[in-house]
Write a structure and sequence with these properties.
alpha+beta, Pnp Oxidase, Chain A, ten-stranded antiparallel β-sheet, three-stranded antiparallel β-sheet, 5 helices, elongated, binds flavin mononucleotide
Length: about 260
Amino acid sequence: MAQAIERLLATPMINPRLPCMSVPFGGAISGAESGMSGISVGDFGQGPVGGIEYSKHQVRQHDGGFKLADDPFEIFGEWFAQAAESEPSDPNAMTLATADESGRPAARTVLLKAWDRDGFVFYGNLGSRKGRHLGGNAQAALLFYWKSQYRQIRIEGAVTPVSETQADAYFASRPRGSQLGAWASDQSQELASRELFEAKVSEAEARFQGPQIPRPEFWSGWRVTPDYFEFWQGQNFRLHDRLTFTKAATGWVPGRLYP
Ligand SMILES: Cc1cc2nc3c(=O)[nH]c(=O)nc-3n(C[C@H](O)[C@H](O)[C@H](O)COP(=O)(O)O)c2cc1C
């Protein structure tokens, strides 16, 4: 899979501080990995900024070289793995943008919990504002910004609920405190006081004393199935690289945008 992305024009000197690791493809995400690699914005885009011929399929690399990139999921996997090495926390944090039925948008951070070619999965309360938006307007945009990599990925697409089985399995994997919190929280509803919330957590603790806590029926997950990707690689002098992929009947159609 990773072979689909080949370096076409390698520079002999690869920045030794850049993370270098194998690319896991999709799957569930167990938790944030951390570890700063000491990368700063000044490390990026040190290759030539002009006079280079490159096709729609080539994405600029940190070392100034290029990679052939024809599969957006492959690029996502590679960039995500690199962000997991260099972000101080929560490399899987992403902005989720939704809109209500009138078109009014809202954005918030959620954690990516699984991804594969079928889409990008996150979880939350079905009655929350995002849940209500997605119930009436099942479209979303996701945004990852990894400062340590000077990179942004935009993903857009239709949203569908995950299966009950997948939601149950993910809920069961959560820490007990998070499970109780899910039961206690009427996410996004008006809360009269912090004390009331703490009392609801205590109620949930008293209600569920056995080892297993069932998933509340009002708590589940959503999958964004992408029909559009944009990979943004910051470069010096704001000559950034923007590579897009739009889904067509024939496959993913690459494009390039002015920065
Ligand atoms: C780092 C971070 C991760 C978060 N992860 C989630 C998440 O996975 N699911 C979730 O429902 N809310 C998550 N939140 C809280 C949301 O940002 C938001 O407050 C909540 O979902 C309610 O949003 P809504 O009223 O638009 O539905 C996270 C917040 C932060 C800052």
